[in-house]
User: Fold this.
Amino acid sequence: MSALTFTLKTRPDQRVDMSPLVCHALENLEPIEIAALKLQCGKRKVRVDELFAVSGYDTKHIMIKNSFSKLDYIGKNLDGGIIHVEGDVGAYCGMGLKTGVIKVFGNAGIYAGCEMKKGQLEIDGNAGDFLGGALAGNKMGMKGGLILVKGNAGDRVGDHLRRGTILIEGSVGDYCGSRMIAGTIAVMGNTGKFLGHGMRRGTLLLWNMPKLSASFNDCGSHTLAFLPMLFNSFKTLNSLFANSENAFNRVQRFAGDMAEIGRGEVLIKI
Assistant:
């Protein structure tokens, strides 16, 4: 059975809320019913077939083609199935993801993977601010699952991270791991200012020496037995993290943020 495919015909001037087009919501609908669904586009509602050419039948495997940066909420609250996106996506991609996989073959906007619970989000390009973070006013960001970014990410990666893993092959902006409660963030590239600001627990795993504030204590160099097991769990990923040449177990460890309870750690490859 061929994947249910939405091919964008024309790029609208206004932003589009794509949240109705998720696998579990379309499961029992016929193609003609899916084409007639309404999407919020700016201040008006438009039919799906006004924006997209619809083909295929397999609602467990959705493809979005010719995507661009004004398509918001792709995969919101996805509960099972796979969504492939060819092109860029807008804000809130994978927001509240419960189970399933979202693969973006392009760049993602702000709040990608925010407050996701389980599942997997892969972004081939760059990601915007608040990757895996919490919505404004909320105090819990990503609660589980895996986010993989093959490019760079913006500011506030993993803000209020509660649980789960964020892997970034490129660099990140300022306040990475800010206000972390728990979880793991790994960054192969460079990091910006105020790394781990206000973090309570959790692990920041880095390949390059960051600029740390005075509220992080140097705990010396260590050989950590859990790191080979952690890297082994990445072996199934199509990523630099699966390459054994990038694995290590010898680190310089810093504890913090001592302005909070100080049970977080920054581990830097030696």
User: Anything to note?
Assistant: Residues 1-60 form one domain. The longest helix spans residues 226-232.
